[in-house]
């Protein structure tokens, strides 16, 4: 009888150990979930920094004209009325100059004035 009782207890302990180590909600799954949580937390930190930068930019754009002017200059290439803009072509652009036909040469097409006249335009901007 003691033999059967010890065998039953051994089987119960083995089942509990299996559930603890390998089963659903066990230590193996816990390790995987922790690794995934750490990975997501790292991704969230990057996104939180990005959100902070964007929020600061929004506040800056709402509060002052300096940020708006900077965006207009960098993104749109705008200059002030009293400023002069000098464009310096890059080395690659200067190696391949555009092909321009000499004055009076047949360019194989209509001139801009002929195109405007054909469209019925007066040459003024809309």
TrEMBL record:
Enumerate the Cytoplasmic topological stretches. Answer: 1-4
- Which InterPro entries does this one have? Cell_div_FtsB, FtsL/DivIC
Region (Disordered) location: 90-126
Write one Pfam family the protein is assigned to.
Answer: DivIC
Q: Which residues lie on this side of the membrane: Periplasmic?
A: 23-126
Sorted alphabetically, which keywords does the UniProt record give?
Cell cycle, Cell division, Cell inner membrane, Cell membrane, Membrane, Transmembrane, Transmembrane helix
Q: What does this protein do?
A: Essential cell division protein. May link together the upstream cell division proteins, which are predominantly cytoplasmic, with the downstream cell division proteins, which are predominantly periplasmic.
Query: What quaternary arrangement does the UniProt entry report?
Result: Part of a complex composed of FtsB, FtsL and FtsQ.
**Name under which the protein is recorded:** Cell division protein FtsB
Q: List the source organism.
A: Kushneria aurantia
What are the top taxonomic ranks of the organism? Answer: Bacteria, Pseudomonadati, Pseudomonadota, Gammaproteobacteria, Oceanospirillales
- Gene (UniProt): ftsB
